[in-house]
Amino acid sequence: MPRKVSVDELNRLSVEAFRQAPKYPYCLILDDIRSLNNVGSVFRTADAFRAEKLYLCGITGTPPHRDITKTALGATESVDWEHVPDIIGLVARLRGEGWRIAAVEQAEGSVLLQHFKPTAGQKVAFVLGNEVNGVRDEVIAQSDVVLEIPQYGTKHSLNIAVSTGIVCWDFLLKLGQNLT
Domain total for the chain? Predict the structure, then answer.
């Protein structure tokens, strides 16, 4: 009969061990995220799926803040992050460093997430935008690909933290990573 494992059985990495552990070849860029709880949730997702880095752009809140800390559950200490006021400059910088820029948005010419095929060895920067306005048009124009998460209900709108989890999980699965 299955049973829930205890916290001790999870073999969690210490913060220092996590910082030293290899990361998967992607980063997350949050632009103008209003909800500090969403920011904290993305920190947890970045930790869970070993993102290389988390960029907090524009008005996106930064640690330390009690609302971020509450939902991040310590991930603000393990995940490498940086606040960059200007997302346009960041996207240009990352592209110059060889990153593929992937905006996560509903847009003309978008690629459904299930059809996205990452290239081995190619680092991907996933851009997630404001809860109301989404990814900025200027960023979409500078993106190498726009990824759309298919939705089949009436809202056609997912919370940014949920979208981040879906995109990260999908990316690691497609890389063939053994996550068990």
Answer: 1
Nearest residue to 124 (alpha-carbon basis) of 136, 111, 108? 111
3-state secondary structure of 77: helix
C-alpha dist (Å) from residue 84 to 32, 57, 90, 91, 124: 11, 5, 7, 10, 18
- Which residue from 47, 64, 84 is spatially nearest to 161, judged by alpha carbons? 47
Q: What is the CATH number of the domain that holds 34?
A: 3.40.1280.10
For 96-124, the pLDDT digits (tens) are: 999 999 999 999 999 999 999 998 889 99
Burial class for 23, CB neighbours closer than 10 Å (0-12, 13-18, 19+): middle
Q: Which residues pair with 103 in a beta bridge?
A: 127, 146
The predicted-structure confidence for 132-154, as pLDDT tens digits, reads as follows 999 999 999 999 999 999 999 99
Q: What is the pLDDT of residues 43-61, one digit of tens each?
A: 999 999 999 999 999 999 9
**2 in any annotated domain:** no
Query: Quick one: which H or E segment has residue 101?
Result: strand 100-104
**Do residues 128 and 149 touch, judged by C-beta distance below 8 A?**
no
- Assigned domain for 109 exists: yes
